[in-house]
Amino acid sequence: MFVNQHLKRKGGRLSELTTHCVQIRKIDTLLRSILPPPLKNHVKVANYANGTLVLHADSADWRTRLHWQQPASLSGLRREAGLQGLQALEIKTRPHDTMDAQTAPAVQRTLPTPACARFLRDFARHGTQDPRIRRSLERIAEVIEHDDYDRRARENSFSSDD
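Above: the chain's sequence. Below: its structure in token form.
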């Protein structure tokens, strides 16, 4: 059988899945028409089953904003999409796509340098009057210097093995 025949065959699992996907796409379009402009670009319908519409937000911040829109969204979807059986919205933070992680450029982690440690020590001495901030800056500088010492020691041990 060709794919089109499977899709058109009534009662088949693939037909049910296709119908469900079309329904979700329609609900997603309607939801975007109901939500305010900044929010609608950060929310996507993930699923609809058993009276619960699952939404994915781009981040926790957008999830919180959507939470505040929940009553208006529920009534709007019931009215506009004819989803009288809609009882609840389940709002989740969208998991990051593995494709995005693979295609995103690698972040180069830069380590603090001894110059950074010197700057922190100088700022601790002359830039703040608060003794707690001064102690914190000095501790950070110590960690940087210690890490730099360890890093140079490792580099020297690797280069002497050649």
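Residues 121 and 138 are 6 Å apart (CA to CA).
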